[in-house]
Amino acid sequence: xxxxxxxxxxxxxxxxxxxxxxxxxxxxxxxxxxxxxxxxxxxxxxxxxxxxxxxxxxxxxxxxxxxxxxxxxxxxxxxxxxxxxxxxxxxxxxxxxxxxxxxxxxxxxxxxxxxxxxxxxxxxxxxxxxxxxxxxxxxxxxxxxxxxxxxxxxxxxxxxxxxxxxxxxxxxxxxxxxxxxxxxxxxxxxxxxxxxxxxxxxxxxxxxxxxxxxxxxxxxxxxxxxxxxxxxxxxxxxxxxxxxxxxxx
Length: 249
Description:
By secondary structure, the chain is mostly helical. The chain is built from ten helices and no strands.
C-alpha cells in the first residue's frame, strides 16, 4: 500500500507541473490510479478531484494573463465552461464502467493527436492576422471541450490551448486563459462527483497536496524551459500512454 501511495503522490506532483505547463496531467494520474486498483471510472473521478486544487492555484496565479477570445468575453467563456463541465460530469456518472473502459484509449488518442497537430504541424498565424475562427465557432469549441473535460479531462489543457490560439490568443495568454478555464470546467465536475460518487479521501488529499506543489514547480519551469522541449516531452507522454491504453483495453 505504501508503494502505491508513493506512486500516486509522484504521479500527482508530476501532473500538477505538467498541467501548469500545457495540460495533460491526468495522463499521469489516471493510469497510476488504475495501477492502484481503481476501475477506470473511479480513477477518472478521483483524478479530477485530486488535481483540481492544483489547477485552481495555478489558474489564480496566472489570472492576469486570462482574457476573452474571438470577440467573446472571459465571462462568456467562463459560463460556457461551467455548463459544459457539468454536463460532462453527469454523462460520466451515467456511463457504465465497461463502456467508459473502451472509450478511454480513443479519448487519449484524440487529445494526443490534437496536441501534436497544433504544436508541430499547424501553420503559424501572423500577429496582425484576424482569428481564423468566428465567435460562434469559438463558443462551440469551448463548450465541447468543457463537456469532454467534465467527462474525461485527459488532455483538456492541450485541447484548450489549440482552440484558444486558433481563436486569436497568443500562446502566453492562451496558457493563462486555459489554466483559469480548466479550473472552471472542473468546479462543476468536482461538485457533482463529490455529491454523487464514493471517493477515497485519503488518496485525494495526498494527491491534491502533491499536485499543488507540482503546479508551483510547473510555473517555474514554464518561465525557463525551452518550449520545444516541453512540447516534445508532452507529445511523447501522450503517445506512450495511448499505446499503453490500447494494449490494456
